[in-house]
Amino acid sequence: MRSRQWPPRASRRGCRRQSAARPAVGRRRPGSACGIWYRKADANITGVRPLQSFAPGVLAEIIRRQPASKERTAFAWTVAVGPALARVTAVELDGTILRVRVSDERWALELERAVGTILPRLRHLLGDDAVKRLSIEESHR
């Protein structure tokens, strides 16, 4: 008994004829039948940078240009530590010391471990001279 090939021979011939018309730049989608081609996103575009490469710098520049306020400090804190940690903390800038109040001792320990990461982020967002150190305090309710 003769084994059957898939796709039928006529379809395979059609694919060969179409392949001559495919674009010079691009590649076949994985798993596509008959060589469906698409163009690479950056094939003809030069000088385009991904948003992730410059968005943090732009955001930091916008924050730095704002006048010093509680809201600016709170926003920079949220950007630096993320929304989950920002929800369980309260911040206040006292000169060059950022006072961080936490509701639980466990959050205080997490913040103390992460000071080496958080402080450079805050300096990037607020300016090098804005925050010299963090003071982590547990608030007793």
Provide a descriptive summary of the structure in words:
This protein is of the alpha+beta class. The chain has 2 domains: 9-38, no CATH class; 67-138, Alpha-Beta Plaits (2-Layer Sandwich), CATH 3.30.70. The protein contains 5 helices and 5 strands. It has helices spanning 9-19, 51-65, 70-81, 83-87, 105-126; strands spanning 27-28, 37-38, 89-94, 97-102, 133-138. A 3-stranded mixed sheet has the order 3-4-5. A two-stranded antiparallel sheet has the order 1-2. α3 (70-81) packs across α5 (105-126). It starts with 8 loop residues before the first helix and ends with a strand. The mean pLDDT is 78.
Number of self-contained structural domains:
2
Query: Approximately how much helix is present in the residues?
Result: 40-55%
Radius of gyration: 28 Å
Mean pLDDT: 78
β-strand percent reads: 15-25%
Query: What string gives the helices and strands in order?
Result: HEEHHHEEHE
CATH fold group of the largest domain: Alpha-Beta Plaits
Class by SSE composition? alpha+beta
Highest-level CATH class of the largest domain: Alpha Beta
Number of contiguous helices: 5
Number of strands: 5
Report the CATH architecture of the largest domain: 2-Layer Sandwich
> Assembly state here?
single chain
Low-confidence stretches: none
Major β-sheet strand ordering: 3-4-5
First and last CA, distance: 84 Å
